[in-house]
Structure formats: C-alpha cells, structure tokens
Amino acid sequence: MRKVGSPSKVGTLPWARQRLTTDLLRRHRGTLSRDDVQQLDQTRASLGKAPFERFRRQDRLSVTDVVSPLWCEAQFQYALEATGRRRRTEAMKVGSRIHDELEREIHLPVVIERSEEIEEERWGLILLNGIIRCDELLRTGVTRELSVWGRVRGTRVTGKIDELRIVADESQERNAMQAFLGLPRGLLVLSDTKTRGSSRPPTESAHLQAKLQLMLYRSLLAGMRDEGVTRAKEEGLDVGRPFTDAFIAQAMALLSPDDADKVPSHNSIEGFWQLFEVHLRPLCEMLRRQDGQEDLSVTYLQQLTRETLFQHSFSFDRAWMDERADSVMAWWHGTRQAQGVRQEEAYKCSMCDFEAGCSWRLHKVEEAAQRYRTRRSAS
C-alpha cells in the first residue's frame, strides 16, 4: 500500500531521454554559457520535433504549461530543453509555502492509502478529492485546490483552482432565480493568490498570465460535466472495476454522511464520477448563469508581510482567452517558432539563465545594429 496525499502531478516524464548531456545539466545551477545555449538550439534543430512531442509524452498539458510561455516563450523553451522544467527560484518556493498555508487555513489535504496494484484507485482519489472540495464549497461557501480537467483548443489540459468562494450578489433577480432552481444564492468567484517580493505593481505580462490562468480554470470547470470518465478511459483504465475494501472504508470516513452512504453502491471510477457530478452540477449551472459578471479575481500578497498589495477582478472573455490559447498551442504543437520578449520588455533578459546565447535576443540585437548602420549610411 502507498500513502497518498493529493494526486501526483500528471505529466512527470523520463526527462533523461530529452536532456542533452549530463555535464550540461550539472552546470545548470544558474546562468548557462553562450555555447551551452547554442547547443540547445542545435539539438532542437537536429531533432525537428514539436515541444509537445518532445516533452509531454502523456499527451496533456497543465494550465501552467499554457500560461508560462506568456512571460517569454524563448526562455520557457530553453528551460524545457535544458532540464525539462523551469528552474524554481527562491521566490517561487516561498509562494508555494504560502499557498500551502492558505489551504490549511480552510482544510487539511486528503490523505489516503491506496493499492499500488490497482491503478484505478489513483483516479478514485482524484474524484474523491473533487467530491470533498465541491461539498465543502456548497456547505461553507469556500474551498481551495479543486482539480479541473478538459480540453483547451483541442488539447487535453489539467489544472488546480487555487480558491473558489460563493460571495454575496447584489442582484435580487439572480438570487431569486437561483433559489427557485435550487442553486446557492450568490456569485461563484474563482480566485488566485500571487506573491511578490517587492511592493511594485505586477508587470503587464505577469498580470496577463494570471488572467489567462483564471479564464482557463473557469472554462475547464464549466465544461467538466461533459467530460465524464473520458479521460480515465483514454488512460486505459477500467472505469467499472471495484476499488479495494480498504480504499472504500477510508473514503467513507472522509465523506459527508449522505455521500458516504452512497459509496458502496458507487464503488468504481464511474460510480465516484456520478457522486462528483451531483456536486459539480450546481457549480456549472452557476457559472452559466453569471456570464458577464466579474467572477474572476487575482490577489497579490507581499511575501514577507503577507499584506495585500493589489487585487483585481474581471469577467470571463472567451474570445480573449481563445486567441492567447491558440497562440500558445501553436508553439506547443510546432506550427510556429518560439518568440522572445518585445523591446519594451527587454529588462526580462537580465534575469534569464539563457541570456548569453539566446538566439532571439542575439537576432534582435543584430536587427537593431543593422537599422543603426542603415540610418548612418543614409545620413
């Protein structure tokens, strides 16, 4: 038996097959030399494969995979090629610790033992988490770390919503309609907390990442009822296979009495999905009925003091989301090359591990030099 908390992240890969050399990886403790970065360029050209084919062999992306390139596609591509992932900075580690603390203020992570021989129980744990989180949201008005999955522009994507809250809604008409339909009164708000080392406002590109992230979460959550157990079937799992008695006993101990009573007759992935869908239905219906409302929110905290620096609420914009998701997917699937930063964002280069040999940056420097030579020769 294996003790399991939240389900392990989907998409962990045997990166050694894609990495370049052991020596290069040993050197990647920070900035890479110009020769190292150019070696990455040469290997990419020789392989001729799309990033999705090279680095996502389980045929899915995370929401983080979709939003991270918005900072700088060239940097993200180099990081994948050098180590298989972005280097975690100290600020990122502090942010993760704060997220864990915020989650524990609301609930403790679900911890359960499952059989290593029955892979279906991994999916059982995912669905169990979903049932518990949705039930908590509907009973108390708040939950955190709700897993979502579905398709974004044809590509399978998974994610985890930082926080969901049902907040007071001033619209008496909408409240009356929701009460008539048996839905919770209020507005379902999806939010995310970002941490900052400084007190300066977030840059435009950082804020765009947060906006796209929340819109993707909302889109995935709203469409989850259509997913059913499709993803589990695509993984080759038997959605009707019963879970072990030990797994079921632990699940029943964690669920509300109403849900626990139904578990013995819903003892499989398909059965757990049916229980999950009961809790999911009102949330999806709330999202459908509040289109156009500012139901997405990002909060920026100061890392040391935990003081709220900025808070921004906005509404879901499918056209805006699709345009940016299409662009990122085009890079992931190899229909266009990675692009670096614009001239006004060149400050990012000084913080990049790959600055010395970045082909995008060197090309832009040469373009600027050529324009200067042309102006001088014309004067």
Keyphrases for this structure?
alpha/beta; 6-stranded mixed beta sheet; globular; two-stranded antiparallel sheet; 8 strands; 379 residues
SSE arrangement:
Elements: E1 2-4, H1 22-27, H2 34-47, H3 51-55, E2 61-62, H4 63-67, H5 73-83, H6 90-106, E3 112-114, H7 120-140, E4 142-152, E5 155-167, H8 172-180, E6 187-196, H9 204-222, H10 230-234, H11 245-254, H12 257-262, H13 269-289, E7 296-302, E8 308-314, H14 318-332, H15 359-378
Parallel strand pairs: 2-5, 6-7
Antiparallel strand pairs: 1-3, 4-5, 5-6, 7-8
Helix pairs in contact: 7-13, 9-14
Task: Give a brief description.
This protein is of the alpha/beta class.
Description:
The protein is of the alpha/beta class. The chain contains 15 helices and 8 strands. The strands form 2 sheets. Strands 2, 4, 5, 6, 7 and 8 form a 6-stranded mixed sheet that branches. Strand 4 and strand 5 form a beta hairpin. The termini are far apart.
